[in-house]
Amino acid sequence: MLKVENLSKQFTLHQQGGVQIPVIPRLSFSVTSGEAVAITGPSGRGKSSLLKLLFGSYIATSGSIKILHEAEWLELTNISPRHMMDVRNKTIGYVTQFLRVIPRVSTLTIVSEPLIYRGVEVSAALLRAQNLLDQLNIPQKLWHLSPMTFSGGEQQRVNIARGFAAHHPLLLLDEPTASLDDENRNRVMELIREAQKNGSAILAVFHNEDERHLVCERDIAL
Amino acid sequence: MNGLLTVDNITKNYGSRVGCHPASFELWPGEVLAIVGESGSGKTTLLKCISGQMDPTSGSVRYTKRDGEQILFQNLSEAERRFLMRTDWGFVHQDARDGLRMGVSAGANVGERLMAVGDRHYGHIRKSAADWLRQVEIDVERIDDSPWSFSGGMRQRLQIARNLVTAPRIIFMDEPTGGLDVSVQARLLDLMRGLVRNLGLAAVIVTHDLAVARLLSTRMMVMQAGSVIETGLTDQILEDPQAPYTQLLVSSVLQV
């Protein structure tokens, strides 16, 4: 599903005299479909940066990222923005703790959107969104409101629902359960296992060791 | 396959001063491209040169019509250009007064573009105008009022309705939310996002507001002193800017 070879990343801060900050040193690994892999390491070691590199939010300094996209291997480090959008639409999903939305857009719309972008019929997309919100304990009376006024935990769960809506073959999860209570955390773990059962590969950063052991079969240590 | 709009080495000189160095890009259906940079960096010049509002000094703009035929904008006659700009293309000016006919009613502002494409049925035109006023959340009772009696935010929404009534495929916008208060801005962003999603509209938006660009655009072009210095996915430009100027621009924003 994913092959990473000699991937490295360093930032050059031009506003600070061109100082170079190495983030990831030549890293190689691969992930197959249906596999759940944890990215581990002390804070500041580049766990989130690695996910951003794979999602195309960061530009790799050197090395290669290959992904199986619509039955074809694609090199992501030199892909055009338009093709990267297509990869994000169909292949790579990314879930962070932070929800970023346009004010006034309803929760249901936000969660169903990834499916609609992919051409799924509106009614089917809404149904999937409702199921996910239900599964994540978002009360029905909130579904038609914008999540901007929700609590932090609720926003995070809306974000998770959106991330899991479209069954991406590769899911990048950046501390998806941080700041959730036990029950909601368990719901998220269920979602992850469900996605995995459906064949998705999972690459996740967990801040909690127990959760990591609960879903991930192996680690990539940074 | 061709993009909807192919911009090739567009330049603009104002006398001996350079307004815009060669710029090239391609725009696809459903894509929103944000052109960002400080004022005076050439954003609006580039936008006007690719949208027929201004003649470029050199370079070309190709447009792929609904039937798939690609045409060179610079080869079109004046009448053909005007027709294209009234039908498949829309342009939303920063100052709504530049994009509206202030002397006629709100309904006529919207209906006028329909008449320009040959619609002659008064009842149909009025109904379409009312539909669009509703879509941009202007009270239909105001249909016969002059835009002079509208607030800045309402005028901007009326301008958008006027542009969208002919179901354009590309919309060009110059600081569409500039000077509007935040609640109106949010309403406009929501409206634009819905149109892009539901109609597959493509848009080129000039803005100096990186937060607007982040929420609305898929791709970004950064301009400085008349040159495009960086292009890429919006989140990539904002999270991992490469050029020194882009790093300064992004780090100067309070929060995006």
List its salient traits.
heterodimer, A: 222 residues, alpha/beta, 5-stranded parallel β-sheet, 4-stranded antiparallel β-sheet, 7 helices, globular, B: 256 residues, Rossmann fold, 6-stranded mixed β-sheet, 10 helices, 10 strands, 39% helix
Could you give a short description of this structure?
The complex is a heterodimer of chains A (222) and B (256). Chain A is an alpha/beta fold and 222 residues long.
SSE order of chain B, one letter for each helix or strand: EEEHEEHEHHHHEHEHEEHH
Which CATH-level-2 architecture of the largest domain in chain B?
3-Layer(aba) Sandwich
What count of structural domains of chain B? 2
The proportion of strand residues of chain B reads 15-25%
* Distance N to C terminus of chain B: 35 Å
* Tally of DSSP β-strands of chain A: 9
Query: Which chains make the largest contact?
Result: A-B, 22 and 26 residues
The global form of chain B is globular
Radius of gyration of chain B: 18 Å
Describe, in plain words, how this protein is organized in 3D.
- The complex is a heterodimer of chains A (222) and B (256).
- Chain A has helices at residues 47-55, 81-90, 107-117, 122-135, 152-165, 182-197, 209-215, and strands at residues 2-13, 19-31, 36-40, 62-69, 72-75, 92-95, 170-174, 201-205, 218-221.
- Chain A is of the alpha/beta class and 222 residues long.
- Chain A has a five-stranded parallel beta sheet, sandwiched between helices. A four-stranded antiparallel beta sheet of chain A has the order 2-1-4-5, with helices on one face.
- The two termini of chain A are 21 Å apart.
- The model of chain A has no long low-confidence stretch (mean pLDDT 92).
- In chain B, the strands form two sheets. Chain B has a six-stranded mixed beta sheet, with helices on both faces.
- The model of chain B has no long low-confidence stretch (mean pLDDT 90).
- The longest helix of chain B has 18 residues, at 182-199.
- Chain B is globular, with a radius of gyration of 18 Å.
- Helices cover 39% and strands 25% of the residues of chain B.
- Chains A and B meet through helix 2 and helix 3 of A and helix 7, helix 8, strand 10, helix 9 and helix 10 of B.
